[in-house]
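Exercise 7. Given the encoded structure of a 156-residue chain, write a plausible sequence.
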């Protein structure tokens, strides 16, 4: 089963649900189909790719910044190395963990294996690198927008 993107009534991405859950939302009339797979039906309904809620849902829990995770870090950095721009495969700590750096938004970047190995347990400056983009704590909109854009289901 494929995941279906759910948008708020104001077209902000909320989350993904299973196809079965999406059909239940349509039947209960809490959501409408915004985008469907052409020529493919799921029972009496077109196969949904994107749903939009009929009523706006306030997101009190989304006021805070997203918690750090490796998956969200790769989304924030667009799956590209912060040093050379190639495909990222690992997480690099700007201030190495052995020198007190933690796994936080402001101290981690996505990196390719080559750059991560070369930098090792040194600081960015000591390794002779420069960051193509500064690490920062992203907003939920940034994380969900890039994630959805990458999947080709929704663009800003």
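Solution.
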């Amino acid at each position: 089963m494929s995941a279906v993107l759910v948008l708020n009534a104001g077209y902000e991405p909320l989350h993904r649900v299973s196809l079965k859950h999406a059909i239940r939302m349509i039947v209960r009339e809490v959501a409408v189909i915004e985008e469907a797979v052409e020529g493919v039906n799921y029972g009496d309904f077109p196969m949904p790719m994107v749903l939009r809620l009929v009523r706006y849902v306030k997101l009190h829990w989304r006021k805070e910044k997203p918690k750090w995770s490796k998956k969200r870090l790769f989304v924030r950095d667009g799956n590209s190395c912060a040093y050379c721009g190639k495909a990222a495969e690992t997480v690099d700590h700007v201030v190495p963990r052995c020198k007190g750096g933690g796994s936080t938004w402001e101290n981690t970047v996505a990196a390719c294996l080559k750059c991560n190995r070369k930098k090792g347990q040194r600081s960015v400056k000591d390794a002779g690198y420069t960051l193509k983009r500064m690490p920062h704590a992203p907003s939920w909109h940034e994380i969900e927008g890039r994630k959805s854009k990458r999947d080709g289901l929704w663009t800003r």
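Remark. Residues 31 and 53 are 4 Å apart (CA to CA). Students should compare their own answers with the one above.
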